[in-house]
């Protein structure tokens, strides 16, 4: 007997790089088939999150913002609101950004302290605001009417909450309209350039000592880094204007939102957090001077590339000369890709029934989902080794905004989601259930049976 502690073979390597990702995916997929987590009869669809890759990503985020700045990196819960995922991110040192009573409850269930939660919905009810202020959750006010509502709630109240105003720097949109929140007419925040707003904001801060933060979120996927950094710069400039005109350091913190775009075209993680921080330094040097506390709200970039969704090919056919593979993975787990394929293309990998990568000459194929509408295609005319019934397909980079938020069309059941850790020797995989598969009984219960 020795008292020598064996090192945990599953300790994540913070320096995991994109080079490891394809190998790790195949390893995880093969292990999932071996263990029956994927099974043509019992479990034809499941999603996986490489937890080591997630840990490496969060470590990279923390490294990218070095001192003297006090930074809270709050994960945007809408990107993946599974409670065990949120809990894991909390253990990795993140806070949590929420935007609905449901996400708020999920964040609390995941163990986040109220002081590390940020409440950002544009439609907060009186009850939501009162609860957030009571618990000391940070609140970003979206509009003038919400400010008046908070005024009422603050009467005679003490709160630990950090309270800020979301501004819309109106710097313009990115390549995806629905993801662009800093256009001239976006529904979010108080616009900076519209007549009188900047002065009205200065006055609002002057009259309210408890108003101490500014928030902006320029957009998600599709926004260039310089556009995002421009929006942050306009927000920092407003903070300095307020502090200058009031002659006191009233604005103590800036919440710069999330939105780092994800590369859906390959395994490379690009842009990375350091590149964004470099653009922030160039556009808004005061942000990182140490004069302000900083909050970030990244979602997609934290998880997307560490997840994939795997489903079996049920049938194949040829129609009008086009090869079609009909699989279990469609609109219920890849909603945006199916409804807006130009904006949200996904990489797909082809595997045999053991999970091993399929080789073979690429053939243009439609990869279809199971739903009963013709548009349920996750890829059109995609060159892949010719798929056969019983093969597996994996939809890549789906760790955020995909299987975690399924779409209820056709009463298709929500698949199980598993976390995976790969042992340091690179051979064994340990799985943890993050969400069990929905059963027919669950479905009946939620549909009023
Ligand atoms: C969606 C959203 C985020 C996260 O955006 P990502 O593109 O996932 O990083 C952050 N903040 C706010 C206010 C959001 O609406």
From TrEMBL:
GO biological process: lysine biosynthetic process via diaminopimelate; polyamine biosynthetic process
Domain Orn/DAP/Arg decarboxylase 2 N-terminal: 53-303
A UniProt-annotated Pfam family: Orn_DAP_Arg_deC
Key word Oxidoreductase present: no
Modified residues (N6-(pyridoxal phosphate)lysine): 78
One GO MF term: diaminopimelate decarboxylase activity
Alphabetical keyword list: Decarboxylase, Lyase, Pyridoxal phosphate
Domain Orn/DAP/Arg decarboxylase 2 C-terminal, residue spans: 305-399
Co-factor requirement: pyridoxal 5'-phosphate
InterPro entries per UniProt: Ala_racemase/Decarboxylase_C (IPR009006), De-COase2_C (IPR022643), De-COase2_N (IPR022644), De-COase2_pyr-phos_BS (IPR022653), Orn/DAP/Arg_de-COase (IPR000183), Orn_de-COase (IPR002433), PLP-binding_barrel (IPR029066)
Active site residues according to the UniProt entry: 372 (proton donor)
Highest taxon of source: Bacteria
Keyword Nucleotide-binding among record annotations: no
PANTHER family: DIAMINOPIMELATE DECARBOXYLASE, GROUP IV DECARBOXYLASE
Membership in a protein family: Belongs to the Orn/Lys/Arg decarboxylase class-II family.
This protein's name: Diaminopimelate decarboxylase
Lineage start: Bacteria, Bacillati, Actinomycetota, Actinomycetes, Kitasatosporales
